[in-house]
Specification:
The chain contains 22 helices and 19 strands. By secondary structure, the chain is of the alpha/beta class. It starts with 13 loop residues before the first helix and ends in a 7-residue tail after the last strand. The structure holds adenosine-5'-triphosphate. It catalyses: ATP + H2O = ADP + phosphate + H(+).
Length: 589
C-alpha cells in the first residue's frame, strides 16, 4: 500500500484528476497478513454512503460539461443529420413531447399497434427515428443506453414491412442481429409483445441451443427473425435458411457487431443476403456508442442518403447525468472483500439492492461467484458468463430479472442491451475492454429515466484506463474514500475470503489466473505495462488473492499454464520463464 493515492473529500475537476490518474504506476507492494495497512478511519465503514453523498454533491460542483472536448464536426458530404428539433423540448429523462397517438392521428401507425404500446409519450430517439424509418430511409441512430431504442426500430419496421406491405409468404421480412444471445431473446420477446395475437410471428436463433429444433421451428411462420451472427451463419450455410423476401435488416448494438470480433461473420452474412434479397432492403443501425471508425464501416451497410440521428449532443457524453459514477483504486486482493462488504452495507440501507457486477473474464466471474458464494452474504448471488450452458444463462437472467434484490456476477454477456428492472448499482471490477464497454455496462442501471449509480474498481496499475481520450467527457470521479483508507475495514472479509479460496477447486482458481494473464497481456498498451511487470502482478494475484499453494515457494508454487495456451498469448521467452508452464493440466478444462 505504498502508493500515494489522490486525496479524499476535495472535489478535483475531472480533467485534472485524470491527468493525475494517467501517471504510470509501478505495481505496489501488496499488504500481506503480516503487514496490514496502518490507518483505520471511520470513513472506511461505509463506501455506499460515500457514493450516495457524492451523488448529491455532484449538483453543487461546477458543471462537468465545462471540461467537454468538442467532437469533430460532421463532414460536408455526410448523410442527412437530424438534430433535436428546437421547438420540442425534451425532459431530462429523455422523454419527448411526441405522443405515440400523434402518429396514429397522422395515419402513420395503426391503432392495433398502438394498443400494444404501454406508454403515452415517445422517448427522444423514438420521436426522431420512427418517421424516417416509416418513410423507408436507412437510419444510423445513436442514443444513450436505456432510452427505448428497441421500440424505436421495432415499431416502425413492423408497421412498414408487415402491416403495410402485408407479405403473405410467412418468410422473414425483418432480420434483427444482436451481439449476444440474451439480448437477441429479449428483442424477440419485445417483438412478440408488439405483434400480439396478429398473424405476424417472430422467432429467435442463437448459439448454445439445439440447432435442429430451431430448423424445425423455422419451417413454421417467421416474419421477423432475431439472431446472433454465428448461429445465423450456421443456418445460412448449413441448414438452408433463405432470405428471398427480406426487406429490413437491423443491427442492434451496431458498433459491437461491426468491430473485429464479429466483422468476418457480418461480412459473410451480408454477402449471402445481398445475393438473395432485394437491393432496396432497408438498413437500420442502432447503438449508444458509435465512434467515427464505426461510422466509416457502417457506410457499407447503409445507403449514401441514410439519416444519421443522434440524440446525444456533440458536447455531451454517452452516459446519463443522473448516474453518479465513481472509481476507486484498490489492490486486486481487496476487490472481492470490498464486494462482500458492499453487499452487506448496501443491503442494510436498502433491502432492495440489486447490483450487476462485471468482471474482466468469464473465469474471473466464476471465481468471484464461487468465492463469495461461500460466505454468508445477505444478497442472493446469480452468475452468468460464457462458460455456463445456455439454459443456465437463461435461468440466471430470468431469476435475477424477477428478484427484488440480488447481485448478478457477470462477464460481458450482459454488458449491452439487457433491460433488467430495478438495478440500483453497476459495479465494474477491473479495467473494461474499452470506454464503450464501460458505458454500455453502466447503462444497465438508470434506464428509462430511473436513477442508479456506478462504481469502477481498479487496481492502481490499471488506472491509465481513466485517462483514455474517449472517457474525457464521462463524469466519473474518485470515490470520497481512498482504497488505502478503506482496506482496514476489509480485513475481516479478506480473512473469510482467504478461507473460501482455499476451499475452491484448483480448476476454478487456476483458470482465473490463466484468464487474467490472457486478458491483460492483450491490453498491455492500455495499461502502460511490460509483459514481465504484468507477469509479476499476475503471479502476485495467484498468491495474495487465489492463495495458490502458499506453502510452496518459487515457480512450482504458481498455478500451471498449458504451454500451448501461453504460446497463443505471444509471450516472450523471458516472460514464459516466470510462469509454471506444463504440457498437461491436472484437470480437464
Ligand atoms: N416511450 C417510452 N416511455 C417509457 N419507457 C419506455 C419507452 N420506450 C421504451 N421504454 C422502456 O425503456 C427501457 C429501455 O428500453 P430499451 O431496452 O429499448 O433501451 P435501449 O436504448 O435499447 O438500451 P441499450 O442501449 O442498453 O440497449 C425498457 O424497459 C422499455 O420498456
Amino acid at each position: 500500500m505504498s502508493r500515494a493515492l489522490p486525496s479524499r473529500g476535495i472535489y478535483t475537476p475531472p480533467n485534472r484528476r485524470r491527468q493525475g490518474a494517467s501517471t504510470r504506476s509501478v505495481p505496489s507492494q501488496r499488504g500481506t497478513d503480516t503487514n496490514p495497512p496502518k490507518r483505520v478511519t471511520e470513513e472506511t465503514i461505509d463506501l455506499l454512503g460515500s457514493i450516495r453523498a457524492a451523488s448529491t454533491s455532484t449538483a453543487t460542483v461546477s458543471s462537468p460539461h465545462e471540461n467537454f472536448v468538442q467532437r469533430p464536426k460532421r463532414q460536408p458530404d455526410s448523410p442527412i443529420n437530424i438534430s433535436r428539433p428546437a421547438s420540442r423540448p425534451v425532459s431530462p429523462t429523455g422523454i419527448s413531447q411526441t405522443r405515440f397517438m400523434d402518429f396514429v392521428d397522422q395515419g402513420k401507425i395503426s391503432k392495433s399497434l398502438l394498443s400494444k404500446i404501454p406508454y403515452e409519450f415517445c422517448t427522444e430517439v423514438q420521436a426522431q427515428t420512427i418517421e424516417p424509418i416509416l418513410s423507408g430511409s436507412d437510419v444510423l441512430a445513436r442514443a444513450k443506453t436505456g432510452t427505448g431504442k428497441t421500440l424505436a426500430f421495432l415499431l416502425p419496421a413492423i408497421q412498414r414491412h408487415l402491416l403495410e406491405f402485408n407479405p403473405k409468404h410467412g418468410r422473414p421480412s425483418i432480420l434483427v442481429l444482436s451481439p449476444t444471445r440474451e439480448l437477441a431473446m429479449q428483442i424477440e420477446k419485445e417483438a412478440q409483445r408488439v405483434m400480439g395475437d396478429s398473424i405476424w410471428k417472430s422467432q429467435v436463433v442463437v448459439g448454445g441451443t439445439n440447432v435442429n429444433s430451431e430448423v424445425l421451428k423455422l419451417k413454421g411462420r417467421c416474419d421477423l427473425l432475431v439472431a446472433t451472427p454465428g448461429r445465423l451463419l450456421d443456418h445460412l450455410q448449413n441448414y438452408g435458411l433463405k432470405f428471398e423476401h427480406l426487406r429490413c435488416l437491423v443491427l442492434d448494438e451496431a458498433d459491437r457487431l461491426l468491430d473485429q470480433g464479429f466483422r468476418r461473420d457480418l461480412e459473410k452474412i451480408s454477402k449471402i443476403l445481398s445475393g438473395e434479397s432485394p437491393a432496396t432492403r432497408q438498413a437500420l443501425l442502432f447503438s449508444a456508442t458509435i465512434s467515427p471508425d464505426v461510422q466509416q464501416i457502417a457506410q457499407l451497410y447503409l445507403s449514401p442518403k441514410h439519416a444519421f440521428i443522434s440524440t446525444v449532443k456533440e458536447s455531451d457524453d454517452s452516459t446519463h447525468e443522473h448516474v453518479a459514477q465513481e472509481f476507486i483504486l484498490l489492490e486486486t486482493e481487496w476487490h472481492l472483500p470490498m464486494l462482500a462488504k458492499f453487499m452487506v452495507d448496501s443491503t442494510q440501507k436498502n433491502p432492495n439492492t440489486k447490483v450487476i457486477c462485471f468482471f474482466t473474464t468469464a473465469r474471473a466471474t466464476a471465481l468471484a461467484a464461487a468465492a463469495l458464494g461461500k460466505l454468508k452474504l445477505p444478497l442472493p448471488i446469480y452468475e452468468i458468463h460464457s462458460r455456463k450452458s445456455q439454459s443456465q444463462r437463461t435461468k440466471a437472467t430470468q431469476q435475477f430479472t424477477e428478484a427484488s434484490s440480488g447481485i448478478l456476477m457477470s462477464s460481458d454477456v450482459t454488458a449491452r442491451g439487457i433491460d433488467i428492472p430495478g438495478i440500483t448499482t453497476v459495479i465494474q471490477v477491473g479495467m473494461p475492454m474499452n470506454p464503450e464497454q464501460y458505458i454500455h455496462r453502466l447503462g444497465r442501471t438508470a434506464r428509462a429515466g430511473k436513477t442508479g449509480s456506478g462504481l469502477l474498481i481498479l487496481a492502481p496499475w490499471e488506472q491509465r484506463f481513466l485517462a483514455h481520450k474517449d472517457l474525457r467527457t464521462v463524469p466519473i470521479k474518485e470515490a470520497n474514500i481512498s482504497g488505502e483508507a478503506m482496506t482496514p475495514s476489509l480485513m475481516p472479509w479478506r480473512d473469510n475470503l482467504n478461507k473460501a479460496m482455499l476451499s475452491l477447486d484448483d480448476k476454478t482458481r487456476c483458470t482465473a489466473y490463466q484468464a487474467m494473464l490472457g486478458y491483460y497481456s492483450g491490453n498491455l498498451k492500455a495499461m502502460g505495462l511490460s509483459q514481465s511487470s504484468l507477469t509479476l502482478i499476475v503471479n502476485e494475484y495467484a498468491k495474495a488473492t487465489l492463495r495458490w499453494k502458499l506453502d510452496v515457494t518459487g515457480k512450482e508454487g504458481l498455478p500451471p499454464i498449458l504451454r500451448r495456451t501461453a504460446g497463443k498469448m505471444s509471450l516472450s521467452t523471458e516472460t514464459k520463464a516466470q510462469l509454471n508452464l506444463v504440457a498437461q493440466l491436472p484437470f480437464t478444462e
